[in-house]
Amino acid sequence: MTRFIPLLLLVLLAACGGGSAPEPTAPGAPRFGDSNPTDWQGRGPEEWPVHGVDASKFQNDVNWAAARASGVNFAFLKATEGGDRVDDRFAEYWAQTRRAGVLRGAYHFYYFCTTPEVQAQNFINTVPKERGSLPPVVDLEWNPFSPTCTYRPPAAEVREQVSRFIEIVARHYGQRPIIYTTPDFWERNEIARLGGETWLRAVARHPENIYPGARWTFWQYSSTGQVPGFVGNTDLNAFGGSPAAWAAWVQRRSVR
Questions:
Q1: Residue 91 neighbours by CB distance under 10 Å
Q2: In whole angstroms, how large is the CA radius of gyration of the chain?
Q3: Catalytic residue, candidates 46, 92, 141, 187
Q4: 120: helix, strand or coil
Q5: What's the pLDDT score for residue 29?
Q6: Contact call for residues 249 and 130 (beta carbons, < 8 A)
Q7: How far apart are CA 105 and CA 119, in angstroms?
């Protein structure tokens, strides 16, 4: 049974013209649910007031205006994977979120069978350098279902490759990419040594229990979210700060 999550006020977003991404405006109340909610037994995601989603082609048709009206403050959209793959829905979602007034950024799923230079160029060729969009994201996790890339390099090589990717992408967009990762990948590859901002997946326990000592900017707390405008489950994410902190972060970290 879907249980709606009582959240605090969120910063809603309004579309603006001139080729820029939307900007945060007035707060509003979210209406999110979860088809398989977690009993957090303590500090749950409702402690943080600013929430959003991430999406790829598997979300199919999305009514972004309805999602925005439900309290979606931001969306991270899958853009690319490896050296040559582009998400089938990226260009569509990128345009639709802008029209709906949803502040958004793009992410790249990193493969370890292609050089970071080629992967960075794939991302740069796909994602517009749009003023006001959120900083890029590099998604670091193992993909056991890949038919072409099952290579898992040593931790030092993982960090060296990712550092090169981050440097190229940061130079192009003027913002250092956020690192998204999962508990096993974080621990095995000592991702904390890369520094920078993180977006951590933790759907059963609070990040402080899974990533001891880690500081996070975004927390992916559910993969079974129920959000108006989406059909079926979608990922839910929290920003680790107040609405005022969110507005300041957006101003500081948006692409210029």
A1: 15
A2: 17
A3: 141
A4: helix
A5: 55
A6: no
A7: 17
> pLDDT for 186-200, tens place per residue?
999 999 999 999 999
Q: Is the pLDDT of residue 12 over 70?
A: no
Nearest Cα residue to 170 out of 149, 197, 145, 147: 197
**In the structure, what pLDDT confidence band is assigned to residue 5 with cuts at 50, 70 and 90?**
very low
Q: Is 208 a residue of the active site?
A: no
Q: Select, from the ranges 9-23, 134-148, 181-195, the one with the highest average predicted confidence (pLDDT).
A: 181-195
Q: Which residues contact 12 (CB under 8 A, 6 or more apart)?
A: 24, 25, 26, 27, 28, 68, 71, 73, 101
List % helix, strand, coil for the chain (3-state, nearest 5): 30, 25, 45
Domains of the chain as residue ranges with CATH: 3-253 (3.20.20.80)
DSSP one-letter code for 82: T
Cβ pair 135, 178 in contact under 8 A: yes
Which ranges of 19-75 does DSSP label H, i.e. alpha helix? 64-69
The total number of residues shown for the chain amounts to 256
At residue 139's C-alpha, the angle toward residues 43 and 160, to 5°, is 115
Of residues 236 and 151, the one with the higher pLDDT is 236
The structure tokens listed for 161 are 């490759």
